[in-house]
């Protein structure tokens, strides 16, 4: 299950349109909740956020591309990937987009929960009204806003449940991701880590 609470349109100034999936109550029966906040992680994909004009030694002027970590695109790597699960144990990284934290509390005895993807320990949960614009000024503002919220934390972004989902039933598996954007064509070039992650989930 890939779950977002909104649709983001980068072509329209990163306009955010809320959406209702109807999945929240169903997931709650298994103790899972995908929160509406956006995760802002200091370990993030580095992307172009603008340009600056510089003067060269010979007097000519040139445009320089400005790149910064876009904290709303968490980069999951290292101990953020479960080393014990087949889906993630062979991966180096997974790149996520406007992801949401997941929480779990046991509601059905016998189900085993495991977090497949987690942020770094330098992450914050930001308001659903957070401005998503990919600009230098906005990212500096977001970083300051996150720091003002207090100590950072780690957040689960993908959780899998395994076991019998009701008494007497055969064992099953349910995997939930707080991100429905990471499997778009633009993030799935052949051979990429995201593509391998998608294939592992299907297998």
Mean pLDDT: 92
Strands in their spatial order, largest beta sheet = 5-6-7
In helices, the fraction of residues equals 10-25%
What is the chain-wise order of helices and strands?
Answer: EEHEEEEEEEEHEEH
- Cα-to-Cα separation, first versus last residue: 15 Å
Number of helices: 3
Structural class, by secondary structure, is: mainly beta
Biggest sheet architecture: 3 strands, antiparallel
Strand content: 35-45%
Q: Enumerate the spans where pLDDT stays under 50 for 5 or more consecutive residues.
A: none
What's the β-strand tally?
Answer: 12
Outline: elongated
Rg, alpha carbons: 19 Å
Give a summary of the structure in a few sentences.
Helix content is 14%, strand content 38%.
Salient structural properties:
203 residues; mainly beta; three-stranded antiparallel β-sheet; 12 strands; 38% strand; elongated
Tell me what the structure shows.
The relative contact order is 0.22. The longest helix is centred in the last third of the chain and has 13 residues, at 136-148. A hairpin with a 5-residue loop joins strand 1 (6-9) and strand 2 (15-18). The strands form 5 sheets. The chain has a 3-stranded antiparallel beta sheet with strand order 5-6-7. Strands 9-11-12 form a 3-stranded antiparallel beta sheet, with no helix packed on it. A two-stranded antiparallel sheet has the order 1-2. The protein has 203 residues and is mainly β. 14% of the residues lie in helices and 38% in strands. It has 3 helices and 12 strands, in the order ββαββββββββαββα.
């Amino acid at each position: 299950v890939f779950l977002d609470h909104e649709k983001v349109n980068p072509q329209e100034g990163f306009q955010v349109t809320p959406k209702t999936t109807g999945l929240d109550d169903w997931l709650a029966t298994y103790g899972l909740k995908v929160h509406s906040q956006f995760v802002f992680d200091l370990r993030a994909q580095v992307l172009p956020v603008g340009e600056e004009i510089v003067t060269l030694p010979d007097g000519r002027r040139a445009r320089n591309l400005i790149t910064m970590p876009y904290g709303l695109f968490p980069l999951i790597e290292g101990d953020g990937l479960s080393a014990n699960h087949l889906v993630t144990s062979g991966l180096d990284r997974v790149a996520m987009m406007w992801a949401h934290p997941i929480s779990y509390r046991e509601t059905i005895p016998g189900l085993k929960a495991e977090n497949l993807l987690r942020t770094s320990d330098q992450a914050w949960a930001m308001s659903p009204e957070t401005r998503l614009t990919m600009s230098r000024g906005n990212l500096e503002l977001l970083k300051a806003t996150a720091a003002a919220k207090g100590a950072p934390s780690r957040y689960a972004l993908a959780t899998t449940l395994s076991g019998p989902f009701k008494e007497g039933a055969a064992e099953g598996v349910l995997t939930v991701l707080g991100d429905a954007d990471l499997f778009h064509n633009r993030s799935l070039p052949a051979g990429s880590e995201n593509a391998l992650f998608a294939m592992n989930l299907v297998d």
